[in-house]
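Re: the 177-residue chain
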Amino acid sequence: MVNLAAAIEKDGISAFRFDFAGNGESEGSFQYGNYYREVEDLHAVIQHFREQKFVITAIVGHSKGNIMYRVTEESLMDRLSTITHLACLSIPQDCRVLTVHGSKDETVPSEDALDFDKFITNHELHIVEGADHEFTHHQDELTSIVLKFIKPHNDKDTDKSKGTQHGRVDKPIRSRF
């Protein structure tokens, strides 16, 4: 994700990278599942940038990766109570979704991405042949796919941003590396 954030910024699009609570460099302890806390984290980040008058044109995410953790009853119930099909159907139809998945991903099977593709209305799916979970030897291909998805809509949103309720984007968001 660091390489992707750098490439997005190099292409003239402001980027901000963060870790959910308990993941990566963030504070807190990792918990299996806990999607509701992650939704709250993401909402807080979006709200912060909207209050600062930034227009958000894309949100890019990545798996938690290969993390060893202790499953608690609470975290297991959170995970089991998440119905992926219903979550996919709750995505607004005007929200474009891109999934890029590696065919050699041993952490999350590519069949999961194919399942998402069945349920998300405005979905674009790319299976990168030979890529693992981290896109170790496919960073350039990942970057190219994501930029092609973001770029046309970022240009259109930037032009519109001068008159939106969120104001003009006068200051760039600097990525945290």
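The helical segments are 2-10, 35-51, 73-80, 84-89, 110-119, 139-160.
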